[in-house]
Design goal:
Elements (H helix, E strand, L loop, with lengths): L3 E10 L3 H8 L5 H4 L3 E6 L7 E7 L5 E12 L3 E8 L1 E12 L2 E12 L2 H33 L8
Antiparallel strand pairs: 1-7, 2-3, 3-4, 4-5, 5-6, 6-7
Length: about 150
Amino acid sequence: MPDTFEYDRHFNFAVSPEVFWATVSRTESYPTWWSWLRGFQSDGLHDGAHTECVIQAPLPYALRVGIDVERVVAPERVETRVSGDLLGPARLEITPTAAGCAARLVWSLELREPWLARIARFTRPVLTWAHDRVISSGVRQFERVALSDAAPPG
């Protein structure tokens, strides 16, 4: 399906899974960590939580999404369902490593925003670039801002 974006990446962090979890659970801080969030309201990070957000791409469009938390296994995993301009499952898996932890982001999201879905057939490389840029800048911002005071593993 041409309008579906598959994503499966690992990111390594120099903090324990517990410290990573404690940090990522502070959903009220997300707008200060991630400059691309233009709107954000969240119930937190627990089973049944709901989040509404607006994600500003590095191109002239924004995506409005809802995120429903289906299952949380702290400090190991969050399973969600995304709705709105994107639709599909997404999850975060956290595993210990010798240097701290690894976070795996996985999703399969259908592009539902009508005009983007129409042009995706012709501009997929540009949309993929914008998506990957938001994620990579988000990981860097998370490390620099959210984890800057976190304790190292061990």
